[in-house]
Amino acid sequence: MNVQIVGPPGSGKTTLVRNLVRHGFDDRTGYRPARDASIAINLVRDVIVSRRKTDPLSALLRLMDLESESKRRECVDYMRTCGEVVLSQTEFLADAHTLWKRLMHQVAIWARFSKSPNIGLYDDHFYQNFLSFCALRQPAADFVTLLQNTPHPDVAIFLQREPEECFKNMRSRRRGPPRILIDKEPAEVLSLLEVCNDVTELLKEEAMKFGVKVISVPDEMGIEQLVERLQRERNRKR
User: Phi/psi zone of residue 25: left (φ > 0), alpha (ψ -120 to 50 degrees), beta?
Assistant: First the structure.
């Protein structure tokens, strides 16, 4: 069963995952760079071909595309759409390659848990990409197309906090704010966090239309109550 935790930077996603892990959900699958070359070979076919932009990354992906056979075709349209956003939003090859590896990893772990009785917990996954693509990095990204092509989770947990609280949390954590927010003025960061909240609310409304079990976590909801709800969903899926 796939469970995605969604919310603006600094809203407490990683903290929530850690708390759930302490209560027996041991499949934390947060972002790690994909190290297995076979993941790339299996995913690239028909995924990312940008005719508008030619660079070493595009050339490499086209070459891999000719040599590969995708084993996860249910994610191909999503990867193609995200790939076009990745290539359009940065002129730096290293940045594009890092984002692409992240997408490959997300697809790989999604496939791992999509038919598993175990729970895969993600604090940086498909739905969270919407906040990156549609709020922080590329405001002109096509939200509707992304959503239509996205493999949806079984459960989505939405966290929403006031921008000021998120900003304070980001400044206090060891890893700091996301790189996209570094060097921005506080007023701009707060504005972007407000946009993230708006996108989160819109995504929550749309997710229900795709049959996703939506859980909103208010401040007063205890971790035990959330654990019970997730266990019920897992039992129902079985």
Answer: beta
- What is the Cα Rg of the chain in Å? 18
- The reply to whether the predicted model has a pTM over 0.90 is no
Q: Which two tokens mark 25?
A: 């959900």
The tens digit of pLDDT for each residue in 189-237 reads 899 899 888 888 889 998 999 999 999 887 667 888 888 888 888 888 7
Closest residue by Cα to residue 11 from 195, 148, 196, 223: 196
Answer yes or no: are the C-beta atoms of 20 and 222 closer than 8 Å.
no
Angle made by CA atoms 2, 138, 172, in degrees to the nearest 5: 70
CA distances from 115 to 47, 85, 104 (A): 23, 29, 18
Helices (H), 44-132: 56-67, 76-89, 93-113, 126-131
Q: Which is nearest to 105 in space by CA: 43, 159, 149?
A: 43
Judged by DSSP in three states, 66 sits in helix
**Across-strand partners of 158?**
6, 216
Q: What number of helices (H) and strands (E) belong to the chain? A: 10, 4
What one-character DSSP code corresponds to residue 30?
A: -
